[in-house]
Amino acid sequence: MDGEGDHTEREFKFDVGLDFDLPDLGHLVGSTERLSDLTLRAVYFDTRGLRLWRRGVTLRHRSGEGPGDGFWTLKLPVADRGKTLDRTELAWAGTRYLVPADATRILRGLTREDPLDPVAELATARRRLVLHDRQERPLAELDDDIVTVIVGGERGHRFRQVELELASARPEAMDGILAALHRAGALPGGEQKLGTALRLAGRITDPPDPRILTKRSSIGDVVRAFIGNDLDRMLHYDYRLRLQPSDPSPQDIHQARVATRRLRSDLKLVGDRLEPKSLRHLLDELQWLAGKLGAVRDADVLACDHLPAGRETTELRKVSTDERRRAAQDLTEVMGGSRYLSLLDRLEVVSATPPFRRSRRRGGPDVAAVDVMPGLVRHRWATLRRAVRKAGQHPSDAQLHKIRIQAKQLRYSAELAGPILGKPARRMSDRAEAVQTVLGEHHDAVTAEQWLLRQAGMGSRMVAFSAGMLVAEERHRQRELERAWRHVWAELDHKRLVRSLH
Prior knowledge:
Layout: E1 5-16, E2 31-46, H1 51-54, E3 58-63, E4 71-77, E5 85-93, H2 101-106, H3 108-111, E6 117-132, E7 138-151, E8 158-166, H4 175-183, E9 187-188, H5 193-200, H6 219-241, H7 250-269, H8 276-306, H9 314-335, H10 338-352, H11 369-391, H12 397-421, H13 423-458, H14 461-492, H15 495-499
Antiparallel strand pairs: 1-5, 1-8, 1-9, 2-3, 2-6, 3-4, 4-5, 6-7, 7-8
Helix pairs in contact: 6-7, 6-10, 6-11, 7-8, 7-12, 8-9, 8-10, 8-13, 11-12, 12-13, 13-14
């Protein structure tokens, strides 16, 4: 890397022995090009409790690639794309003695009040080979690294890794290369260098994952698992939202909001087993956060699905864009504030030691989940069914919105129960999601209509005319969805489906 910037790194990693012989790969590509060897020095930074590492994030300063004081590199995991290890990589030039301000800002939700200090220092002797296609375009770079641990493990310990970083090739184009490396003795799925160093130092191990639920899990296991997993999702999108705070990705906003709402729903599911005061505080804070995310999300849905591009909607789109910018600025201030960071701290504590209440009638956290979860899911199904019946044949928009929320809560509870109750829970989750989706589109149409009516009363004559045309479209969409939701509800409204939960 020879300058500041960011990109998505896609690579394969392999563990190899120090005596590994790299096979000849020239016959598998158009040509190969040997680059000059490098001697690299990398210092990795993390908190005392390795908060970055435990989230799959690495921050390092590395020198030896060019002139100057070296580069800082921050690597953030992205969604799983299959065979490769994919990470968003950001880089800044600078000395190792000053962490870049942008890196500190992006990592604030993970580190909070903990300082970033050196946790390992590695020296790497790197041999580089560029693979070209038959048109002499670069496909990938193969780096053969012999690493020496300087600080952070057994001093002087050496290990070797091979990395294949894609340039323009698709992962499947590397199948022949991967097969050749495997035949030569390279083991795919090698760990990141920092992980190997920390493992050598005994700072990380591989205990059984307590968040993997089975039919033998207790209700306490379920509570610890969902709080931990939902918090993981929140923190993953925390740093992604900080990448472009003035214009966060709509997908990241959506997923952060889903994670926040899901955690709130899961907590309410087992609320009678948790200490009331602590539960109420968490539910209130999560609702507050979901509202801040929702303000940005509503603007995204409006612009994407309800304001078609064209000259007649230019003014409306500008108003929507301005509202989104203000909502994003508000969210940025929230995420930098003590209230939000304290919520993350509290959730981290609660994920390790949930505040279970003592109850002789319901039993403690060691009660088998298979004896508890069916009743919890059935209760949510019954609550949803009562709401549908109460709404009658001509439900109001508010009633449909309430039904949508309850269908979503049923879906979340059934998904949570899936590893414990099996196919019946997964089937119920799928059908509840169908109801939630249709009624979610209806709610979006209602929200869009209300927004358009407000703009029609405040804007120019052109705005009023455009808004009026779009209001007619939204009302037509609502009528279609009001007819459609009954069909998906009929698939969920089966007592036999509920009885299968046992």
